[in-house]
Amino acid sequence: MEPENDTVSYVAYEQKGIRIQGDMVSIRLMNDAPENHGYGESGAGSRIGVLAMGDIDGSGAVDEDDKEELLKLAASGQVHDDLFYDRADLNGDSQVDLADVACFAKYYKEDVRTARETRTMRITEEEIHTASASNAEISQGTVEQLFSGAASLTLESEEAISGENPVTISAEFGSGKTMAGFVIDPVDGSGNTIVDGTVSVETEKGKEKVFEIENGKVKERSLGRALLEFFTGKEETVSQGGPIVIDLKGQTAVKKVTIKVSRTLGNTALVDIAKVEFLGDMKERIPEPEMTAPERVQVENGDASFTVTWRRQPNVTGYEVTVHGVNSKKNEVTQIFQTDKPEFRAEGLGDGALANGNSYEIQIRSVNGAWKSPAAEAVGRPRAASLPPAPENITVTSRYKGLSISWKDMMDTDSYNLYYRKYGDSQGAYTKIPDIRENRYELKGLEDKTKYDVYLTGVNPLGEGPESVHYTGVTAALDPPVTPDYKRINVEVPGEPVTAHIESVRYGSGDYKGEYDIVDGNYETSWARIDWDSGATYYDLKKAPIVSFDRSYEMDTMVVIPDGEQTFSYNKAVLYYWTDRNDIQDSTKNSVAGVLEKKTSNNKAYYEFRADRPIEAEAVQLVLSTADGNSRRISMAELKFYYYDSLEDEIMDLYGDPYHVSLRPDVDRETMGKRIQSLKDRLDQPDPVSGELHPRKEILETELANAERILKDGALQAEILAVDSKDTGNSDSHITFKGGLNTYQPLGVTARAGETVTVYVGSPAHKTGDGTRLQLVQTQYHGSSAAWTRTLGNLKAGANDFTLEALDHMDLERGGQLYVVYTGEAGREQYGVRVSGGTKIPVLDLSDTKDPAERLKLAEAYVNGLEAMVQDMEALHNRDHQDYSYDEKNCIYGATDIVSRYTMISGPSDQILEGLSGNTAAEKAAALEQSMTAMDQMVELFYAHKGLSTASDAEPHNRVPAGRLNIRYQRMFAGAFMYAGGLHIGIEWPQFKEMVNGKPVIADAEGRYQSGSLFGWGLSHEIGHEINEGAYAVAEVTNNYYPLLAQARDTNDSLRFKYEDVFKKTTSGARGKASDGAVQLAMYWQLHLAYDMGGYNFKTFDTSKEQLENLIFARMDSYVRKPSSAPGAEGNKLKLSGTDKDNVLMRLAAAAARKDLLDFFRHWGMEPDADTVRYASQFEKEERGIWFANDENRVWQMEKRNTSQETETSAKGSVPQGIIQYVNGENQVNLEISGDTNVWIYEIVRCERDGGTEKKQSVGYAYAHDGEAVFTDVAATANNRVYTYEITGYDKWLEKTEPGRTKEVKVSHRGDIDRTLWTVSTNLTNSELEEPGEDHPDTYVQPGLEKMVDLETEGAVTTFTGSVKAGQTPEIVLELNQPELVTGLVYTAAEGTPIGKFSVSVSQDGSSWERVPVSADTFTLEDGSQTVYFHDGTVLYTYDAAFVKLTADGQGGRELSISDLSLLGQTGDNVEMDAAGMGRLMKDFAINGGADGVIPEGSIVFTGTYKGNPAYNVVLLWDEKGQIVGGTDADGNIQAESLILAKVPENGLLGEVSDGIWIYYLPEGTSLPEHVRAELYRVDDAETLKGQRTVSSSLTITVPEQLPELELDPGSGPAAGNERLRKRDGLGGRTREGEKN
After folding, report:
1. C-alpha–C-alpha distance, residues 613 and 595, integer Å
2. Which residues contact 1457 (CB under 8 A, 6 or more apart)?
3. Would you state the pLDDT for residue 279?
4. How many CB atoms lie within 10 A of CB 1585?
5. Is 1503 in contact with 1517 (CB distance < 8 Å)?
6. Phi-psi region of 126 (alpha: psi -120 to 50; beta: other; left: phi over 0)
7. pLDDT tens track for 1509-1563
8. What does the alpha-carbon distance between residue 270 and residue 1518 come to, in Å, rounded to a whole number?
9. Nearest to 1249 by CA among 1599, 1597, 1594
10. Residues whose CB is less than 8 angstroms from the CB of residue 1461 and which lie 6 or more positions away in sequence, other chains included
């Protein structure tokens, strides 16, 4: 848009929400960020708004269009005389260049920073009674305008202004104006501002006060630096030319103000004054609130982790850390963590780990109850600690003169290098393609029809990782795939636009250009549909092309060639046809199924469809579908149709059985011989049109040769495999984990890629050519997780020929075992299968064999077969597979399968043999049989805990699956030891021998372990992944329940976790899951321990009913499969949808236990939602402390139950006692606990009153010994709080005692700063000084400096003693090695000569030091120690320091001793209540001289002290019932008043007070409670009290029945003097210094 006629490019500034209430509001704006000009972001800078510039096109915003316009003008280097150019000249130097671009960058896409208003008194010109100026002429403005703030004033004298020639300005108000002070503002940039002079103020009572100005400062105490920041934005120390602040020390009624100027900045005859601002009440002295947001945030990045630290904050109870980013599972997650320490380590996020190289947004907030501070922000970026792994799952796809290569997106990898060369060129160098940033690459410019060797490496900041497995790819040519023309109907006709015998093509939908695109003999024309289905799954007449012929043809075979853009494979086809091409409609169609086989030629794919029977048709429609809805494209470049040829059917008809092991019995030998010869002759005859022989000539020749052999020798003795129709996935519809199982039945054959095999299928219910419910599956031996299996197609009765494909492009031997899969109903059909082709391999099937002798016999035969294969394998390989050198780990002849009831082991023969113990085949067979028994025993144990049973009484949803766990020899991906994948579990070569070394567990009738071993942790861990119940599964946690089952021995030491860590979590009060996955697992295990009381760990149950009654997870998983079977009242049934996994778990556990278990889950840090609470509440509450359950405790219970000891060992009903031992200043409380001798463990709960409620937090546990225990509670974050402790004991039945309660204790620790990183240096030396030597050639080294900061060593105090020469000053420097907020120090001299007079300095760099005020300047130790605060008598100071120096002033020449030096950080606010400071007021007390009201005589007064900021602190009193002392009225208003008293510090702003006074008073006659306590609050807004949170509490004080009388005496002297608090009770009194309000 064209800019308006305005050469200024500022964006319109808007300030919202200004309220003017009888005062004046001003804002300060700059056209640059204030921090760029010395203003701090959190001080005055935060009050200044920014007037953004850069709106070059006048659109009202600084945006992308402005950037493009500016860059264009700057790049041109030309000066233009137009409005755009003028607006782009941001710095006003008449040219647009890089300087303007730099200026523009400050505002581009930045949010507008608004100013914060400054509020001052409004004084109108009419209120100024008289105004004058003497000894000068007014050249600009008026005096009235100056004092009303309307305009600046310039006075001009005849000669230079000086002490002899001053200029005077005065203003008198018509009536006294009450104010706290005023500010005389200079004119910015003027050289004529006030340097010397006086300001006199005349009060309404006629008193005058004179303020002297010298060098631009008021000599008497001014409002000071902080007030200047607040009102003027100037953060530097006031100097010549700065604002002049007049502090009237309280509210004063001013009648007249006179300003006399005796010198200006430039010693000129002019004086410029911008305005005079009058400051109102104390609200103007309120500083910025301290939000205690975390500061000094630092992030240390690690391997898949980061640690974030920040400065500890006062007045908070903990911190909340929010992490947002994409985890290792590619999921974008935001997760909130809680911590009570100023540090947090992140290793996981949501359902995955942190991913190296990803950026994670971090927000840290301080918390106190429901209150949260603003967030401090940081970014974590984990980095790899090692080279990247080798790239995996590489796919190589042929392209014309190129290869399309893709691979898995690898962890810890920033980029990839691709290497390639011609295959077989061992002397040629690889070409390198570096710095590939995606996980795909198009390799172009290669030779066509050429095979290439390809591998990849990953790269990260540590370097280049190892090579991937080498892969191969063959470039494509433009040549189309070569397909058979034998018996083809629609052959090409030279010069014709369509192939022969095609009348028309009808397209209902899709993309095409010409009518004959799919039958024109041109592979560059095609039809395509963007869909995954063209009618094979969901039929529609218009989905696919319909081809009409010129007459009816008998056919059974079609070829479809996809176009060059087709990337998705077809997996299903159906042929629809019409016998009348003139009547094509849905109702007249016919259909035939068939076999669709993918083939390749010229490195291009095509598909052959062979119908189950020949058809006669005038029009046909071949419909297809891809694998799934994500593969959305189907195309046809050419369709080819073939006459039906009976030759193959006639050859197959020679046989008398479907397995082709015998000839037809109804044909005599001579006739059969002639028939075979006739068929051989026909097979040798080429097609007269194309000249081609039968495309399946080799296969048919094999069949004829086989028939001749049977004719000569009789029926073949071939092995027919009986298909087990019980093994079908159709039986597993109720199984929630069926994706981890398969129903593969091994055929005992391995075959290589490119090899053709014939599978013969027989069935009593099917004639040859009928479709069956069998599928053929091929696999890759030692395959990768992404490419190891493929369904080749459906089998029909009779012979089925398949050519095996390569499942991946690794340059390794390709091929593997073949399997058949039955897809029908269980037990409904019978099939037999024989395979011709491939190589026989040993298979052991024990799935239906229970007789031990028979099992051993089968196992021994199998072992013999294994040994023979292993012995001959290399020779067989070298005979058959010479295209690859022999590698025992990859040779497909090493494949074997072992089938048991629940598993199938598909592994390397060599490793299985090596894993079997024994020397003879019989011994090895016995070991194998035992191992497979153990395997089934283990899985059956797991299934029992899932509620799955083989028992006859099992309901359909509780029956074990038909599918098996397939443990396969697979190639590992990066970081994997074993893995759980779809349909299988992957195991590598060295681990595979462990798959056959299990030993069945022997247990007694009750399930007590006796002997045996159910494999290692890894296998059952992966099985756990497969069978995990997804409704509540937590990866790497719940799956470990199963290996725990397999290995637990009913002892605490047979587990993967320690119960000390478990109980630490369950009694920590911390929300959220444990950081240790092993500890997380214990929560699930405790449910098992608490409710599975029907036997010991290996107890088995004969019926499904018993199983469900005795195993809690059996019931839980059963309810997942059938939620309606779970208990629940009408309207409150179990609901598993619409919530998260944690709530699903809590609901299922409540249903299975029939108990309200929410206390248990809350102890584990989980918080139920409202629906979970509602569902669980219908059950009886679980009163036992099952969060203390452990294995040995459960054993003890089972041994003692139903005996007399059951009642004798109970502690129920007893009450523990706790005695507190607390040392003031420490952050820990020690408890001595005693109770019933049957108590074995105590839970300790910290209790704190917060307002009218009591907050409870479990803080730990302690084991009891004869009922006694000790416990230490450490307050990590909170301070100055009053606690009691609730102690509950639990006996070994987990029944609890009544809770015991301790007395109150107030924890007020000193805030000691962690000294872990400190370094000590000093000029003190002693006789143990090391001389310069080899280790320290240039310096003396003082030994034992660590004694100054090591607290105690082995219980003994250590002391360093040293001295300096007379005249030198002793110094000790503590280098903190990180900035800390320091408020004081503690010096200890347990022995020797202590330091006397001293001073303290701080520094950020160790060279520039600042001396700090201290509360005492001489150590006068009490018990050998003294605490010193940085305090000037009024204000407690906090310093940001990296170095702290203690100087022993004037003590050179004498020995000094230091036992310990501690530095103190911020301890937060504190409130104390004085028992001697409560009573009835004897007479009225005027607050602030009456300016702020009166506390009337007879009022009930409570007093105490506080530490904090009076501007943001509030005190309330509470009684023992949780009611506010004084109560509230009908509208909820508190019927009491609370005063916070504080002396205004020098800087004029209300700052931190270390020992202030508070007063809480009630109307006379108010009913009083028996006990009162004080709570101190912090707020974010001093006026609205927004953001209120408790920061401290006092001990409870008993209110006497007869209150004493009190007198608050303001004393004598000026209004600025101190007030005093005096107590009078007839026994004398005492006086405490108060503070001015």
Report:
1. 11
2. 1359, 1360, 1361, 1389, 1391, 1392, 1393, 1394
3. 66
4. 12
5. no
6. alpha
7. 888 888 999 999 999 999 888 877 888 988 888 765 544 455 677 778 999 999 9
8. 63
9. 1594
10. 1348, 1349, 1372, 1374, 1385, 1386, 1387, 1388, 1446
Whole-angstrom distance, CA of residue 654 vs CA of residue 1448: 116
Beta-bridge partner residues of 1516: 1575
From the list 945, 937, 931, 792, the residue with the least C-alpha distance to 863 is 931
Do residues 575 and 592 lie in contact, with contact meaning Cβ atoms separated by under 8 Å? yes
Contact (CB, 8 A) for 635 and 531? no
Residue appearing with tokens 């909130």: 336
Q: What is the pLDDT of residues 1113-1124, one digit of tens each?
A: 999 999 999 999
Bridge partners of residue 774, in order along the sequence? 822
Instruction: Give dist(CA 1551, CA 1436) in Å, integer.
Output: 8
What 3-state DSSP class applies to 792?
A: strand
Question: For the chain, percent helix, then strand, then coil, each to nearest 5?
Answer: 20, 35, 45
Whole-Å CA distances, 1456 to 1117, 1349, 1367, 1369 = 73, 16, 15, 12
DSSP state letter for 1305: E
Q: Which single residue is written with the structure tokens 């959190």?
A: 42
- The pLDDT assigned to 1544 comes to 57
Q: Residue 635, Cα to own-chain centre: how many angstroms?
A: 44
For 360-404, the DSSP string reads EEEEEEEEETTEEPPPEEEEE----SSPPPPP-S-EEEEEBTEEE
Q: Where are the beta strands (DSSP E) in 440-545?
A: 440-443, 451-460, 463-464, 471-474, 502-506, 527-529
pLDDT at 25: 67
pTM of the model: 0.76
User: Secondary structure of 1132-1190 in the HEC alphabet?
Assistant: CCCCCCCCCHHHHHHHHHHHHHCEECHHHHHHCCCCCCHHHHHHHCCCEECCCCHHHCC
Q: What pLDDT is stored for residue 1037 in this prediction?
A: 93
Kindly report the number of other CB atoms within 10 A of residue 142's CB atom: 16
pLDDT value at residue 157: 85
Residues of the chain with pLDDT below 50 are: 1-5, 38-45, 220-240, 1546-1548, 1611-1637
Query: Coil, strand, or helix at residue 677?
Result: helix
Phi/psi for 1217 (5° steps) reads -120, 145
Taking residue 923's Cβ as centre, other Cβ atoms within 10 Å add up to: 14
Quick count: other Cβ atoms within 10 Å of Cβ 398? 21
1063 with 1185: CB under 8 angstroms?
no
